[in-house]
Amino acid sequence: MTMLRDQGIILINKDSEISSAAVVAQVRRLLGMKRVGHCGTLDPFATGVLPVVFGRATAAVPYMSEYDKEYRCRIQLGSSTDTMDREGEIIKQAPENFDASKLEDPSYVEQLLNSFLGEIKQQAPLYSAVKVAGKPLYKYARQGKEVERPWRTVTVHSIKLLGIYHREGFELPCLDVLFSTSKGTYIRSLADSIGSKIGCYAHAAELERTACGPFTLDQTVKTADLFDCFEGLGRDSKAFLSASIDEGIVKATLTAFAGFPTQAVELSDAIKLTHGQEIKVFPDDITLDTVTFTYNNVLLAVAGVNRGLAKVKRVFTDSSAEFLREGSIDEDI
């Protein structure tokens, strides 16, 4: 796949105890660019797949934000916290007469977990970045202020119990669970709700995002490794970007649109698209909400198609791009 050197996606395996915004700041420093963003905020305590975009690839974020996601969560039974994770203060504990023997039965646990499959309603956690009146909920929480938290409807596509095990220092077991969910699902809230339904309370002890849309954990890189490369190149951002592209660390912007309808175009139409102009490449009976248009495997633009006419929504390639000026051989259409 042809790579443009002024945009792309770096898949970070985020470490625990660092915010998603801090990861973006790190990549901004590595690339020497201001135009850097991320898709799908991870809680500071969470780890795993965090797509970081730069240059014109930042325009893909609204589409990437619609991705389904996969998480592996260790749910510690026996206590709930005010943050619904290990970072918070314990607010409830399992009753003394709770029968823990049923928790050793995987079939019982699986049946209970499966009751959360499908469309469910979740209230935003008090300690979250969701904004109310322009202010993140966690700020209200830190000030001890009560505020009406919004609800949202999400979908849990699948739940797989990977194991039941005991952690040192905890009387009740920990559930190792893999969730596949729609965008906007709070896994911390799921852990809390699962504990309430069992009757012993629970919180998320560990949380790892294993997939974000088409991007998976095995494609990611640690920021520490990126900084090792950066230092080895004399802290030269241009050399670092070039090396990262050559090593496959930087993914093409087009990879963000895996699964979307794609249409290759000829040079004349490619130039029109980069200027935001309409083109006619489909029959009159074709209407599509979102189509990616490419030339020589490079993403040019995203457009909607109405009665065969493509109207550009976002442009990803400048009309002065070298590969357009070269007039190289068109893709197979």
Task: Describe the structure in your own words.
It is a single chain. The chain has 333 residues and is α+β, with helices and mostly antiparallel strands. The chain folds into three domains: 8-66 and 214-254, Alpha-Beta Plaits (2-Layer Sandwich), CATH 3.30.70; 69-212, Pseudouridine synthase (2-Layer Sandwich); 260-325, PUA domain (Archaeosine Trna-guanine Transglycosylase, Chain: A, domain 4, Roll), CATH 2.30.130.10. It has nine helices and 19 strands. It has helices at 20-31, 61-64, 106-114, 137-142, 187-198, 223-232, 237-246, 267-274, 322-325, and strands at residues 8-14, 36-38, 47-54, 69-77, 79-81, 90-93, 118-123, 131-132, 135-136, 151-165, 174-181, 202-212, 215-216, 250-251, 262-264, 279-280, 288-295, 298-306, 309-315. Strands 1, 2, 3, 4, 7, 10, 11, 12, 13 and 14 form a ten-stranded mixed beta sheet that branches. A five-stranded mixed beta sheet has the order 15-17-18-19-16, covered by helices on one side. It has a two-stranded antiparallel ribbon with strand order 5-6. Helix 1 (20-31) packs parallel to helix 6. The longest helix has 12 residues, at 20-31. It is globular.
Features:
Pseudouridine synthase; 5-stranded mixed beta sheet; Alpha-Beta Plaits; Archaeosine Trna-guanine Transglycosylase, Chain: A, domain 4; disordered C terminus; 9 helices; 19 strands; 333 residues; globular; 3 domains; 23% helix; alpha+beta; 33% strand
SSE topology sketch:
Layout: E1 8-14, H1 20-31, E2 36-38, E3 47-54, H2 61-64, E4 69-77, E5 79-81, E6 90-93, H3 106-114, E7 118-123, E8 131-132, E9 135-136, H4 137-142, E10 151-165, E11 174-181, H5 187-198, E12 202-212, E13 215-216, H6 223-232, H7 237-246, E14 250-251, E15 262-264, H8 267-274, E16 279-280, E17 288-295, E18 298-306, E19 309-315, H9 322-325
Parallel strand pairs: 3-12, 15-17
Antiparallel strand pairs: 1-3, 1-14, 2-3, 4-11, 4-12, 5-6, 7-10, 8-9, 10-11, 12-13, 16-19, 17-18, 18-19
Helix pairs in contact: 1-6
